[in-house]
Write a structure and sequence with these properties.
mainly alpha, MetI-like fold, 12 helices, elongated
Length: about 300
């Protein structure tokens, strides 16, 4: 009995022109997304709010009339009277005699620092767990997902309050608390995106060419899976600003009562609602508008990068 004939399938040579075309297609995706963002009024509004927030936070030493913690009008404040807007203090004074405008400007820097650091911490932890679950599968996937499910079983604010209370009443504990709360969100999103990418044809083609699983995962699957994670990070920046204010409102943000931070300003305004309700209006408005800006930009970016919502 003769041995069966073995036919070798000729492999097509890799065309440098095709690779360049694929690279240009990836770049075109971001150019198309940028054009869609510019045509979206909600996206433009979100970008304007976010950029304004960033500029105010970064230029706080230049824009703020007074230094953080300064009490220029302390002698003018009485228990039954808090001076309102004036030429020297455009938004008036607070119960301690601090300039409200300066407090809001310095509070933007504190909120930006907490929001960015906590989101980066959550993103780093979520990327590690999501990569382990999506790349290895099996028992690693099960162990990571059970840990994520356990973290998601506790309400996010309650988990953040618990961590901040255990870690101590300091700004760094607020960053850790908010970052840990965001870890399971990023982990589940990255895992699902990687599992979807692993079923694509280009992964099968790469493996058939002899590339190792590690090379395929780190060089192809992971880079193609991070887009939704980046979009989610933009959305969670708004949540981080709100949660930082909530922890400060609950007295877990650390610092003195006169420290410039939007949540702490709301705490100080509770006892002055009858005398000066504006003290609660300004920090609450800043928190709402900043969260709205990040949300509008994040949702618009998600739609711009989603092929299913792309309009021809």
């Amino acid at each position: 009995m003769s041995a069966p004939e073995v036919y070798e399938v000729p492999q097509a040579p890799v065309d440098a022109g095709e690779l360049a075309e694929d690279r240009r297609a990836g770049e075109a995706l971001w150019r198309v997304a940028a054009r869609r963002l510019l045509r979206n009024p909600a996206a433009v509004l979100g970008v304007v709010i976010v950029v304004a927030f960033l500029l105010v936070a970064l230029l706080a030493p230049v824009l703020a009339p007074y230094a953080p913690g300064a009490l220029p009008g302390r002698a003018d404040v009485r228990p039954t009277f808090i001076p309102g807007p004036s030429a020297e203090h455009p938004l008036g004074l607070d119960r301690y005699g601090a300039d409200v405008l300066s407090q809001l400007i310095w509070g933007a820097r504190a909120s930006l620092l907490i929001g960015v650091l906590s989101t980066l911490l959550g993103l780093a932890g979520g990327m590690v767990l999501g990569t382990l679950a999506g790349a290895f599968g099996g028992w690693a996937d099960s162990a990571v997902m059970r840990l994520v499910d356990l973290m998601l079983a506790v309400p996010s604010l309650l988990l953040a309050v618990s961590i901040a209370a255990v870690a101590g009443q300091t700004p760094s504990s607020v960053v850790i608390a908010i970052g840990v709360v965001q870890v399971p969100v990023f982990a589940r999103l990255l895992r699902g995106s990687m599992l979807a990418q692993k079923n694509q044809d280009y992964v099968l083609a790469a493996r058939s060419l002899g590339l190792s699983r590690r090379t395929v995962t780190m060089s192809h699957v992971l880079p193609n899976s991070v887009s939704p994670v980046i979009v989610q990070a933009t959305l969670l920046l708004a949540t981080a600003v709100i949660e930082a204010a909530a922890l400060s409102f609950l007295g877990l943000g650390g610092g003195s009562p006169t420290t410039a931070e939007w949540g702490r300003m709301l705490v100080a305004a509770q006892n002055e609602l009858e005398v000066a309700p504006r003290l609660a209006l300004w920090p609450g408005l800043c928190i709402s508008v900043t969260a709205l800006g990040f949300t509008l930009f994040g949702e618009a970016l998600r739609e711009a990068l989603d092929p299913r919502s792309r309009r021809r």
